[in-house]
Amino acid sequence: MGKIDIEHLNLRYSDGTESLRDINFVIPPNEITVIFGPAGGGKSSLLRMLNRLNDIADVVLVSGRVMFNGRNILDPDIDVIELRRKIGIVFSRPVALPLSIYENVAFGLEMAGEKRGPKMDAVVERVLRQAVLWDEVKDRLNDPATAISGGQQQRLCLARVFALEPEVILLDEPTSALDPVSTARIETLLQELKEQYTIVLAPHNVQQAARMADQAAFFLQGELVEQAAGKTLFVNPKDKRTQDYVEGRFG
Q1: Cα–Cα distance for residue pair 181/107, rounded to 1 Å
Q2: Residue 78, φ and ψ in degrees, nearest 5
Q3: Which end of the chain is more exposed for a tag (fewer CB within 10 A), N or C?
Q4: Which H helix or E strand runs over 200?
């Protein structure tokens, strides 16, 4: 569970921008797949495609297949709400809701019809522990989520995703707004979480990409230039464009 097969995926926006061109690759389960490259390469578009957030963008063309659990998630009859429970996303800046810490974690469950009570309390504690946040906030659950630090808010966003029991977690530059200590905590947490989840990470720099990647894919101007195991791609890339980017010659 959690494997994603992307086949001949194309995406074009209404302004004529062709964000993705004939993308083909496999995202394996229980590994960290890093997609990296300069701005405008299509990384964020791909992440948003994987849980259908591009449905609300000005898209004029989508073609190809994205297979997940035996279904093409691009089919118009797919249950998008259920898909987003299975494939959660965390963005670059923490988006804490203007609610308490507890209510932030419980929000998705309540939207799905779950009621407050011991069962929900147990889920909130479990996912906050999973996000390595419980010990820091267990006595502050009724405090506003906006009162905790940026690094804590980002882990709170992860806990909110965990509460919906996803199979895949997408992360779009999740540490770009954080200090080095918070960044290290998030990176350590992600390495532990891959035993339970398939993780797709768009890092905010090449150094983080190299540290985190079990699998890596280099995107440039909407094209998937090269993909390989992380330890191979960052040490011995086959394509000169990949090598130039990894070595800091552009980007």
Answers
A1: 28
A2: -70, 145
A3: N
A4: strand 198-202
| CA atoms in the 13 A half-sphere facing the CB of 166 | 32
Token pair of 2 as six digits: 């959690």
Angle at alpha carbon of residue 182, lines to 217 and 85, rounded to 5°: 60
Of residues 2, 14, 82, the one with CA closest to residue 54: 14
User: CA separation (Å) from 11 to 50, 91, 219?
Assistant: 12, 21, 14
Cα 163 from Cα 196, distance rounded (Å):
13
- Report domain 4-246's class: alpha beta
* Beta strands 71-72; 223-229: pairing state: unpaired
The answer to pTM > 0.85 is yes
Q: How do beta strands 215-220 and 71-72 pair?
A: unpaired
231 CB-side CA count, 13 A: 1
Cα separation, 129 vs 207, whole angstroms: 28
Query: Each residue's pLDDT tens digit in the chain (251 positions)?
Result: 779 999 999 998 888 776 899 999 999 999 999 999 998 889 999 999 999 988 877 888 899 999 998 899 999 999 998 999 999 999 888 888 999 999 999 998 888 888 899 999 999 999 999 998 999 999 999 999 999 999 999 999 999 999 998 999 999 988 888 889 888 988 999 999 999 999 999 998 899 999 999 999 999 999 999 999 999 999 999 999 999 999 988 76
Cβ atoms of 17 and 59 within 8 Å: the answer is no
Q: Which residues have C-beta within 8 Å of that of residue 245, sequence separation ≥ 6?
A: 37, 38, 206, 218, 220, 251
User: Which amino acid makes up residue 192?
Assistant: E
